Amino acid sequence: MLEPTSVHHVPDAISRGQRPGDVRRVNRATALELLRERPQGRAELARAMGLSKAALGGLISDLTLEGLVLEHPPTAIARGRHPAPLQVNARRFSVLGIHLVPHGLEVGLYDALGTQQEVLYAPSQIGEGFERVLSQVIETSHALMIRAKKLRIGQVIALTIATPGPLDSQRGVVLGAPKFPDLNGMNLKHRLEQALNLPVRLERDVNAAAMGHLRQTKASSFVYILITGPGIGASVVINRTVYRGTHGFAGEFGHISLDPKGIACPCGNRGCLERYASSEAIENQYKKRNRKTLSIAEMTQRAREGNPQAQAVFDEAGTAIGLAAVTLVNLFDPSQLVLASSGTSFTDLLIPSLKRQLAKHAYPYLNLGAQLNIENVTLEHPVAPGAAECVLEAIYQGEIAIPKSNTEVVMG
After folding, report:
1. From the centroid of its chain, how far is CA 51?
2. How far apart are CA 206 and CA 237, in angstroms?
3. Could you read off the pLDDT of 274-324 as tens digits, one per residue?
4. 183-213: buried (b, 16+ CB within 10 Å) or exposed (e) per residue?
5. N or C: which end of the chain has fewer CB within 10 A?
6. Single pTM value for the model
7. Domains and CATH numbers, the chain
8. How far is Cα 100 from Cα 123, in angstroms, rounded to an integer?
């Protein structure tokens, strides 16, 4: 079985018997992760890492020579000097975080701290074939790579592209996205590496969003549910690691069947959750009931204004998600359930009916469902920033090397 993938985890303290190279890698990753959180003085950082000042001094010397860490001169005070603050050099390099789904393409440019600098949106070219879809991703990525140079935030050195699953992240192949057949069986990672001459990571969109959320929360175990245009996915986070399952398919939440005789799904099953509670499903249900076509954004606005027809459709979608979420809650006992949507933020409208289902069916005799903390993510585009966090973690963990010059990119 595949091991869970660590997400934003400061490495454990060095244990005896580690090889020198391992010790250096762990210390380096720990120092950079701590300094990403906030600038610190040498003494404070040494205490946090459990290192002597001499050991830390050598490490900081290497990081400053590489341009990864900046050390500002100490400021004078009445007595003595303030410790010189160390911080990550946000302009040492930049990365791309990409979200590719049937309804569109988002490519974001992020500095070394994960701060978004610019973002571009484009059509996904769904239905035009893999080569056209790939060309759109390459063209949009190239535009931001050029933009990074003009902004002087350091060259783009790597990227993560997040897509619907299921996929094989190790080989970089999209195995069978039912709603995006252009990608099926294609080695997206290899083709992008060839075209852009950059290290590329492939990740499920919901896992990327969950990894971004981990930088914003202290929760150790939670389930992150992401609703996109045609689909719904879940990322199960246990002890701050994403659980992937034996074949890397864990989290195909949208394909939990609520009704074996229900609506046919492109995956080959019937009654799948995403046929009742995705953005497209909510739009279709409203049209069926009211004989009027509204976008999810228009429906959201009407529901917030108190329109009973719009509210009823969101209430039914929340009920469907709640019924499916009962299984996740009973299996994993998370401390938190996180709801997010891509494009228009509407998941707060689902929470009341979702809570009713959890209270009724998730360990009702212990009242756990009713007590479960449910968090609503208001960020309308959570995946691309999360994709940037995926590749930044790989860089800081030493899995992707940082080039020493403006022209050298080291594949990792």
Report:
1. 32
2. 11
3. 999 999 999 999 999 999 999 999 999 999 999 999 999 999 999 999 999
4. beebebbebbbebbebbbbbbbbbbbbbbbb
5. N
6. 0.87
7. 5-88 (1.10.10.10), 94-209+383-396 (3.30.420.40), 218-376 (3.30.420.40)
8. 9
